[in-house]
Amino acid sequence: MINSDTYSSFNERLSRWLLLFCLVAVGIGQSFIFTSLPPIGREIGLADVRISTLITAGAATFVVAAFLWGGIINRIGRVRSVIIGMSCYALTIALTGFVLQEALAKNLSAEQTYYWVFTLRIVFSLGIAGVLPSIQTYLIAHTDIKHRSSTIAMIGASFSIGMILGPAFASLLSSLGLTAPFYIIAFLAGCAALFVVLFVKDKKHVRQFERPPAINWFKEPVMPFLGMSTLAILSVTGIQQIMGFLIQDRFQLDVAQTTHQLGFAMMTMSCFSILVQMILVPRFQLGVVTLIFSGVAMGVLAQLAFILLDSYVGILFAMGLFGAGFGFLFPGIVTAQTLLVKDDQQSRLASMNASMQGLGAALGPVILASLYQLGQLVPFLGLMFALLFMLGVFVYCKSKLKHVF
């Protein structure tokens, strides 16, 4: 006979890995569109500005929808929320592929295509905004506090892996047809939803049928850490935005050379971030204080490297440092947040955090690109002071909440 404890342990591990696989799929869905949509949009006659608005509309919807998902998760359950989000993801991506395919076949005009894809991107973001908060809340509920930072790190690493795989999938699968990536990635998301239906159970969730009292986040002790979350994501997306400008300007390269070297730089940052979150944080069970201090220290060193090292190797070194710093900082900030609220508020916190991260992702490219116009080194100086300010806020909060950390 199979020991019930062994079966329960196996089932929990299976549920954990299936949910992390969902996060990989979400990362793919968020990033592959950046590679697939621009060339298809141009092919069917959409202006570059209109193509950009499709992506921006999805990002803006995500910010609002993520904030609203907290109460929904409490009401319908974490697993059901994941299933709804992943099903919505699969359906809208497949329909987007179909609409674009019809446009390429000249069965739809560019104008009709734009409005169809715009609507589908809105619906996609409405659904997918609930996946990350649901999974984060589920995994926290099924993990003891000692391993919480490791769990948060795995969440970040899984999403990062998906963000890396998305453009790669789009490039490889496009050889089967311009819209093939949409159908194959939709199938992947659909399989993920089906596996969650079949294998993931949540016996710890207590559904809330009465509407919980509203939370004034500005008066909650977690608010500074939500701000830190926004700043951390803002710095990552901002660096990604300006790195192409920096490489081209610093080394006087053409577009093809810049794209090639930018790819290596981005890969370096992502790989170091994943390495830290998947290996170092779980291996050493690092606490909030160590994670945040290490993340800020490495982030500041990365900015100094961007400023002082003029070679391409120097940029790769700085990107590696920055990726590693984010790998420490992200789980530190999110773990701190989860320690500052009650268990019945975790889903609403996760939703609020996802919304704040979406806001940071939207603001980062605009803010750092604007700073870059003032001078090549201005964004890095700005980020250095921002990271030091973040550390100062954390030290102050820690002195007030020392029993928590």
Automatic annotation (TrEMBL):
It holds the Pfam family MFS_1. The chain crosses the membrane at residues 17-37, 49-70, 82-101, 113-140, 152-174, 180-200, 221-242, 262-281, 288-309, 315-341, 353-372, 378-397. SUPFAM superfamilies: MFS general substrate transporter. Keywords: Membrane, Transmembrane, Transmembrane helix. Residues 15-400 form the Major facilitator superfamily (MFS) profile domain. It comes from the Bacteria. Signal peptide: none annotated. Gene3D superfamilies: MFS general substrate transporter like domains. This is MFS transporter. It comes from Marinomonas primoryensis.
